[in-house]
Amino acid sequence: MELRTSSPAGAPANQSPRRRVQAGYERIRAALNNAPGRASSRWTSMGRLVAQPASTATKTNPRDHAAAILARPAREPAVAMALLASFITRYPLQSAFLVSALLLAGLADGLSLSALLPLLQLAFDTPGDDSELAQFVRDTMAQFELSPSIGTLLIVMLIGVFIKNTLVFVSTQRIGYIAADVATELRMNLLRAVTATRWQYYVSQSTGELANAMATEALRASNAYVYAVRLFAVLVETLVYAVVAVLVSWQATLICFAASLVIVSVSQILVRISHRAGIQQTEWYRTLLGRLTDVLQSVKPFKAMGRDHIAEDALADDTHQLRRALKQEVLGNSALEAGQEPMYTSVVAAGMFVALVLFDLDLATVTFMVLILARLLKRIGKVQKIYQRMMVCESAYFAIEASTNRALLQAEVTDGCAPPVLERSIEFQGVSFAYGENVILDRVDFAIEAGTFTTMVGDSGAGKTTVADLIIGLIRPDTGRISIDGVDLETIDLRAWRRQIGYVPQENLLLHRSVLANVTLGDECLSDADAEQALRDSGAWTFVRQMPDGIHTIVGERGTRLSGGQRQRVMIARALAHHPRLLILDEATSALDQRTEQDICATLRSLAGPLTVVAVTHQRALADAADQVLRLTNCKVRPAGLRLQAT
User: Fold this and answer.
1) pLDDT one-digit tens code per residue, 130-158
2) pTM
3) Distance of alpha carbon 190 from alpha carbon 598, whole angstroms
């Protein structure tokens, strides 16, 4: 197997990965913004793809479909606002609940803080000052006929702390639940969008990259949501502390904010380092998982030929690049963590010196201001740290959103509504089809009678699988008409038509699960009896019932505990389990020995009648067993009779 790379077509081999991503982004953006098509789109200033309905299909390069997210200019504040807005729009009720709870928690925190200054004045036996906060506390307690005693003030503080932490507990719990919902919804949206795409778009996607989006990107996106809500919570706390500080001394608060602004501005370079590291992680996780999937599918030939090192060589650069991005994130996070406290402590110490030595303020007021401003500065630092971590994860959110939106733009159009009925024939009338400039079928005419066994033969690339895909409706003819019992396939309900088809591919697609699970694929509408009957019809029941656990025996990774013929019969049983009217086999016997192939042919021959069987093949045995043989050559389909030399 040739390993796929993430380089866009036409990119120079020596071009850096970053430049390749940028080049891919530019092509995608130009195509999506300018090309006419079935679905159009626009790129927002944040690089997010937004679908806009249109009428015809847009054909764009599907590679690097997250490149706009990965290569867009880093404007951290704007990106953060876009992320917050996206979450609030997606989860309005949950967001409203969390905002309300966090605001109430902030007010409760302010209640406990407001009692601290009078408490300190009583503790230090100093006269009450004329600050707005002290006056507000005295007036409020007087309205409730409470004396500002130490016991009363302590009770007020405890009530405020209890209310705050109760609300924080409820909010934190809901944040965790919603984060799980975010990851689940992103995964399911992507899964639904990808499985509903046009077949030609789907096969152009990297399985590993889609798996990475489902696992890594969805998890990191949910973490971005957690950080976004935590950021809002800390901002509320910061606002409360700022209001309390202003009520005591607006001059000191203003100086504190000016100093913190300088510190935040200096520290912003560390946020940018972490942001770039997060973007690179999204890029390299996607590339690494895409190539890893290819490598794992090729392990056996690598080992058989003593070329195990190829797997390491194929992944080494991507792994090292990912490690570098992870190290950059650690550097940015740890440097911000280590640098903030000394700088903010210096500001508090300087302020305390000025208040006590230069202005000779009373100790109670100075102590209160130090406590408030220290907590305020700590919250400002915490805002920046949470913001930094959110920026590490935000690219994953926008990347999986872009993947989903790209898939939605390529959704398969199924306008037909006529119920499918196959009792007479499947007919091709003047059908032509081409992949780009490569013409596969040119005005072909033929019919497949219902209840017969038909084989299609021809050289590799002649179009046999294309004919099967046209019958299934995975692709549509460029010209001509395909009809089922005289009804145009374009007007038939495609989902209902496909439910009447059993399909056996050439590839071994058995799961590492039981025989039963491989036959039913978890379909709750299929019972054990349905699976057993399908196994009997495919000739597999004889060996299945002799297995240690019978139908519940685990078949191993890709069916390694079964022989080639046994795997093929289980896959035929899977195709028969839902009682189809049409059975299509695509080179299903190409890897079997002659005797096993003859047994499979006999099985297929016995199925014809109740079923219409269509087999794509190179093998003579299938042609000899068929009622009709169709040869594909020179873009045409011609009857070849029943006696045919193997091609």
Assistant:
1) 555 556 666 666 666 666 666 766 777 78
2) 0.70
3) 43
